[in-house]
């Protein structure tokens, strides 16, 4: 019981750091513990008070779904998920919309080369915090779309040096709006290390449950791969994948050359791009008293 109480206190402090409010379901799901507990236990022993704060997440979710519908036109996009505050229903009025994009293998940078201009044509794209001497204000950030995490299907596990409580939250709170071929589930299974921090949340994400607040969110059901219709078709697919991979390398070099001078704490490779200039893990450990 003592360990459970300590876990509850840590979870409440974590939510407070982001000015979030925990419902009974939230407390159970995001309980900071490597052990699973039932909803009945956490709700009965640690009931949470209701919140009267305005909810801006519903409108932002509606906008996010419009963005995703457009981006699903790109055939190399496998999965698109909301991340950040919107994914947990805690968005503020001036918040942007954070998205994670997973592409087919060896197609990340080619996909990005298509997606970014396409997004800019129809929606407001999140700009860097500072452009030259000009500081980007709240009006430019509000409801803008920020694609801060790109992965291809060969790079689903989070690198060991990024594995911490904060990143575990980011992984498990990702809310899929589009999923082609069950890649979201593979993403969760590839990051079993998150159980060390959030055992309940891992089990819920694995079952794809607990999204009652966002009912009917997924825009595309898990698909079944098409049957192999012969050797000739297999050869054509192989040739197309080879050409795509070569074009992807060229697209990576082109975009990396453009971004090189602007890179600070971002992690960028041929198969993954973590556009997270801020690492909150250290500040969170200090806030929670975990060293």
From TrEMBL:
Listed transmembrane segments: 67-87, 107-123, 238-258
Domain of life of the native organism: Bacteria
Keywords: Membrane, Transmembrane, Transmembrane helix
Keyword Repeat among UniProt keywords: no
Keyword Transferase: no
InterPro entries assigned to the protein according to its UniProt record, in alphabetical order: NT_sf (IPR043519)
Protein name as catalogued: Polymerase nucleotidyl transferase domain-containing protein
The organism's taxonomic lineage, starting at the top: Bacteria, Candidatus Collieribacteriota
């Amino acid at each position: 019981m003592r360990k459970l109480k300590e876990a509850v206190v840590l979870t409440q402090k974590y939510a407070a750091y982001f000015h979030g409010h925990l419902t009974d379901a939230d407390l159970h799901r995001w309980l900071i513990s490597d052990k699973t507990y039932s909803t009945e236990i956490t709700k009965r022993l640690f009931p949470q008070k209701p919140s009267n704060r305005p909810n801006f997440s519903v409108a932002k979710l509606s906008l996010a779904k419009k963005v995703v519908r457009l981006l699903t036109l790109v055939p190399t996009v496998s999965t698109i998920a909301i991340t950040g505050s919107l994914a947990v229903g805690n968005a503020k009025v001036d918040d942007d919309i954070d998205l994670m994009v997973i592409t087919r293998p060896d197609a990340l940078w080619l996909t990005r080369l298509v997606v970014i201009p396409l997004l800019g044509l129809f929606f407001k794209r999140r700009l860097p915090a500072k452009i030259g001497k000009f500081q980007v204000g709240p009006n430019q950030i509000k409801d803008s779309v920020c694609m801060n995490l790109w992965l291809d299907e060969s790079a689903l596990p989070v690198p060991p040096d990024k594995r911490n409580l904060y990143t575990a939250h980011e992984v498990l709170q990702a809310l899929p709006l589009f999923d082609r071929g069950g890649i979201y589930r593979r993403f969760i299974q590839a990051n079993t290390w998150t159980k060390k921090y959030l055992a309940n949340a891992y089990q819920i994400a694995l079952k794809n449950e607990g999204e009652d607040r966002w009912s009917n969110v997924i825009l595309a059901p898990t698909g079944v791969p098409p049957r192999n219709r012969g050797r000739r078709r297999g050869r054509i697919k192989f040739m197309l994948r080879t050409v795509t991979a070569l074009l992807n390398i060229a697209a990576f070099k082109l975009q990396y050359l453009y971004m090189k001078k602007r890179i600070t704490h971002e992690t960028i490779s041929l198969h993954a791009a973590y556009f997270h200039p801020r690492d909150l893990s250290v500040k969170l450990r200090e806030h929670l008293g975990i060293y």
